Amino acid sequence: MKTKKYADIIDVANHAGVSPATVSRCFNHPDMVRPDTRKQIQIAVEQTGYIRNRAAQAIHGRRSGTVGLIVPTLDNAIFSNLIQAFTEQLNANGFTMLVATHGYDLDREYKLLRSLLEHRVEGIGLIGLDHKEETYALIERRETPSVAMWNYRPDTRISCVGADNIEAGKLIAQHILDLGHKRIALAFPDTHENDRAASRLTGVLDVLKKADIQVPADWRLNTTYSIRNAREVSVDLLSSHDRPTAIIAGNDVIAQGVIYAAQSLGMNVPGDVSVAGIGDFSGSAHLLPSLTTIKLRSNKVGRSAALILDELINDRENKNIHRLDIKVELMMRESTSKL
Amino acid sequence: MKTKKYADIIDVANHAGVSPATVSRCFNHPDMVRPDTRKQIQIAVEQTGYIRNRAAQAIHGRRSGTVGLIVPTLDNAIFSNLIQAFTEQLNANGFTMLVATHGYDLDREYKLLRSLLEHRVEGIGLIGLDHKEETYALIERRETPSVAMWNYRPDTRISCVGADNIEAGKLIAQHILDLGHKRIALAFPDTHENDRAASRLTGVLDVLKKADIQVPADWRLNTTYSIRNAREVSVDLLSSHDRPTAIIAGNDVIAQGVIYAAQSLGMNVPGDVSVAGIGDFSGSAHLLPSLTTIKLRSNKVGRSAALILDELINDRENKNIHRLDIKVELMMRESTSKL
DNA sequence: GTGAAAGCGCTAACAG
DNA sequence: CTGTTAGCGCTTTCAC
Predict the structure, then answer these.
(1) b or e along A162-175 (b: 16 or more beta carbons within 10 Å of the residue's beta carbon)?
(2) Could you read off the pLDDT of A229-258 as tens digits, one per residue?
(3) Is there a contact between A253 and A226 (Cβ–Cβ < 8 Å)?
(4) Which residues have CB atoms below 7 Å from chain C, the nucleic strand?
(5) Which of A124, A144, A161, B204 reaches 20 to 30 Å from A177, CA-CA?
(6) CA of B47 to C1' of D2 (A)
(7) Nearest CA of chain B to the CA of A75: how many Å?
(8) pTM for this structure?
(9) Using one digit for the tens of pLDDT, what is the confidence trace for A192-208?
């Protein structure tokens, strides 16, 4: 007999003078074992330094205790609020998060989904609604409880909770129009495989179009989600004589870059140019000038998504698709003003 | 015989006309099976929609394919760079990350460690060097490959890779002194259970003390890691007649808040007050004024930590403790100037 | 309430 | 190179 390195359930059972079955029950159905037996086992666990093996547990087709989360990136203020809220709520419900990032590559996302499924996650959290057909197909085939966060639409294939990003775009565009601006520029990220950005842009353009306002091609700035890049691309635009009186940014980070660009050119925001963002990141209210933006309540999205996922996991018979529209809200602050 | 829901390795084997063992080998030691057999199996996998069960694999005491990461919070630019780099590198090495957050509560950290161990993570990434004795003891008892990120010290109980935060504090303090400042205030977070902040503060105070400079108690601002809070606590200090000529912040977010506080009071940075941070977050170089700070190379920390962990996991005989000191660097920018 | 025994899905010897 | 066999650590009927 070779010496095992770590205590297993049998060691604990011997130690406590009960059978392995009882030890198992003690963990999974505590009220099926007598309190004093339970106490014996508890002591045995401590003495042996036993740590349960979830893998062995998961093998019985039962709970793995994990939930998968696939996000484009962690390297970014954009999702961190959301992820934190989602993670916290799921932790509270006894799950551990398996996190994977795909860097905005949806092929990679599919592979990660497979990998997470190999780990038998009990549910999956995704960002956005743009996913490969294979991704959706796999989720459906395995009937894995899933929830898409960040964007809301009434016709989604899987449960979703998020803001209506089209509405967010409309709201901020309308605000800019209401202030009397007509010379409006846009600073958005690439909308390819990024439905959040695409929806926002759609909303913005929709409202502008209805107001008969054209955005010249060279006023449609393309930038990444970085202060640096946003600042760089904006400087050119703002240096020109023929410049806009307002700029709508795809999110708050971009807006911040735009503001710095203006300020570095000696311009006043909102005096010389109004700048609006979308997202209301932590800190946006405390910039100088404070940023007019659309509040998306990412905390609520994350928490609600976790709650829905938990429900989906605990009632797997119920195949309903839950959809939650977290209302967006205009935060009028200092970075925009009447023309 | 009841119908199973999902294909298992036996279904695949039947489908491919081979034995389960061969299928298993095909996954784990591909070069031990003939290419055409491999192809058969590949086809069978696709037809059956088979997805491996890592849990069943992990049960053999072998690889679970997961690595645990325990961080204080995700809700924060501070760690996101680091985490992203760590995660990416580990993904590249074939691991999936199990992430848990403890919200700066080290008791919680211990519980999370246990939970991660239940999932039989093959390695653990931690932030900082301040941990409960139980946490260290558990890691040592189970000989779990572990690496602490963010702070470097030559005498750690587990492997670590990070910057010497004391050095970071010294560097920025020396810079401020070199500029001729003598009236210096500090804006730091609570250093309890936060060795990174504590080390930085130690470094700063050390240098100031050697230069015979006292920091009055009411010039030692206490703030959280938020622009908002930092801005609020700074306004009082800066409104006073008896105010400092320079403020050293515990990190860049705090520094940003301090700068906004000054600017909102109509003061010029660095004209009226110099402000320095620590961290060099993405964006810090593009603030207005650009922030003088200490570069910590969090990407490198994350990547190196992942590499070390991978090595530790793959060579479990080798019980060496690796320690990597990622050099800090002063980034002289616009937010500080000669007195 | 508790124990005995039969697997869960997979892998690692060992033969062939 | 591939199949056979014996488990891995745990959970769950079914008796007792």
Answers:
(1) bbbbbbbbbbbbbb
(2) 999 999 999 999 999 999 999 999 999 999
(3) yes
(4) A 17-22, 25, 32-34, 37, 56, 59-61; B 4, 8-10, 20-21, 23-25, 27-29, 50, 52-53, 56-57, 59-60, 62
(5) A161
(6) 22
(7) 5
(8) 0.87
(9) 989 999 999 999 999 99
